[in-house]
Amino acid sequence: MMQLRRYFLACVLVLALPVHAAEKPGKAAIASAHKLATEAGFEVLGMGGNAFDAAVAVSAALSVVEPQSSGIGGGAFFLLHRVSDGRQVMLDAREMAPGATDARQYLDAKGELDRDKSVNGPLAAGIPGEPAALVWMAEHYGKLPLKKSLAPAIRLARNGFAPDARSLMFLGLRKDVIARDPGASALFLPKGTVPVQGWVLKNPDLAKTLEIIADKGHAGFYSGEYATKLVDGVKKIGGNWSLDDLARYQVKEREPIVFQYRGHQVVTAPPPSSGGIALAEMLNILQGYDLSKIRGVERTHLVVEAMRRAYRDRAEYLGDPDFVKMPVAELISPLYAAGLRASIHPKKATPSDSLPGFMAPAQGTDTTHFSIIDADGNLVAATQTVNLPYGAAVVVPGTGFLLNNEMDDFALKAGVPNAYGLVGGDANAPRPYRRPLSSMTPTFVVGPERTLVIGTPGGSRIITMVLEGILAWFDGDAPQKLVDNKRYHHQFLPDVISIEKDTFSLDERKQLQQMGHTLSEGERPWGFMNAVDWNRQSGELRGGSDSRGVSGTALVK
Ligand code: DON
Asked: Looking at residue 371, what is its pLDDT?
């Protein structure tokens, strides 16, 4: 019976797919966290490239100009929609745990999690996926050779650029850890200190690394001379990578999570991201209310209750799909959401400890997202990261890139929060060759008349930010407005609604408290959302880059 129902649902979904293969925007839109990266994308479109070539250019340029957020030593998810055949796929270029991974490496003598080891230095680093993704995307989806699509990034690395105030602010935050590593401090702390604005960062080693990738493709980075240099360098500073780890690394093509919301198809990130499943749960719950008529506190309450329930399931079930069996079809089904919806009281908060399961708080720090629609209507939503700002804060001399600290995204010790306050258990335990669970949620929303491409950094808050962005888009907000909107977040435990300054009025806060909610206002804003949309009726393309980031740039041309 259940199977029949699923078959019926699948048929309805297929029939409901919006058809727009013949339509073209005629222009392109790119929104990214840095002007130089957005421009790199347009440069490559100008050479005759498509959205996927532009994504290679933007991604690689961000790796150069936003070293605090992402890089060649990190990982990424690229969500792609190809117009020519309607293919929708997510390239999983998430970092992979090295073969020597052993959870005990991250514990101190008393058996407690040693946070320094899980986020600083080479043990924090998974095997990078970013180089593999650039090559895969160019070879399988692009029109141009890597020599062309990587040219802007190579130029930026070699000629230099002036890091923006945000980069320097994060450098200040991570200065003490960077100072411990000769490779990282030679690059980022000239004269032993954080440089002032106007300083030009030239990175010829990174230019050479990118050239090797452009010349020799995947093998140029993951095997041979370059791999030997990298593995030796990692070992020398206390890491445990092997040549076999690098040789094993592969991009995985994953089928996206797809579901319907208010007559639109939502295409989003599958595991090892938790984002798409949580987004589906939340939107499926909210689909049962007429949100176009429900405003203010009443609406916030319902959205928070949806968040609370989805984040409970995240900790319980999700991990690397190649290692862990997950009830994905159930979690994203409207029937399951209906059950969750029925447990929501319209006027009273559900205490998280009355629901089964566990989880804790989160902080957004850095990572980066960009969104592209090209003149043919190809779409790319990409979120890429080295995890915390400046990753593990180590650079193998001669490579020019920081290693990530993505190992901290595993539940290194069951039930003990990671840097974002997220906890987990077996499903996300560190094991050789596993990919750590992520919150990165690159997403498309495709309706009969319009398309949205959206995503953001922000640690565990990524998923609720994408949710709020989508809800605002359905309310009629333009991309620039929806990326700038004030935010709120709930992740089951701690049982609080985190808010930015001025998210709610005093009166709204009082009403939410009367419903049983606890509010916690943070010092800093969070996220750096970049979104583009296309209205097929009017032909208009629009972009929005979060005003919270200083160099974010959305262009349409
Ligand atoms: O994959 C994840 O979920 C995290 N490593 C993302 C980190 C992040 O977004 C930090 N940024 N603001």
From this structure: 98
